[in-house]
Amino acid sequence: MHVNNTAEEKEIVTQQKSKLGVRLFFIYLICYAGFVFLGVFKYELLASTVFWGLNLALTYGIGLIIFAVILGIVYNYYCTKYEDQAEKTENLTEGENK
What we know:
Shape: elongated
Strand content: 5-15%
Number of domains: 1
Number of strands: 2
Strand order of the largest sheet: 1-2
C-alpha cells in the first residue's frame, strides 16, 4: 500500500513540474517571439540606442539570456518545493501506517 502512495505522489509531483515547465516555456516563447518579430518586421528598430550606448538588439538579447536564467531559478525553486511537500506528505503517511 505504501508503494502505491509513493508512486502516486511521484506522479503528482512529476505532473506539477511538467505543468510549471510548460508554462515557463510559453512565457519565454512569447518573449523570444517578440525578439524574432522585431528582427523580421521592425529590424530598423533594433538598431536604436536604448541603454548606455547599447542598441535594442543587444539589450533584448542579453535580457533574454538573463530572463532564461531567472526562469531556470524559478523552476528549480518550485520543483524543490513540490518535492519537499511530497516528502512531507510521504513522511506523514508513513507515521500513520506504523
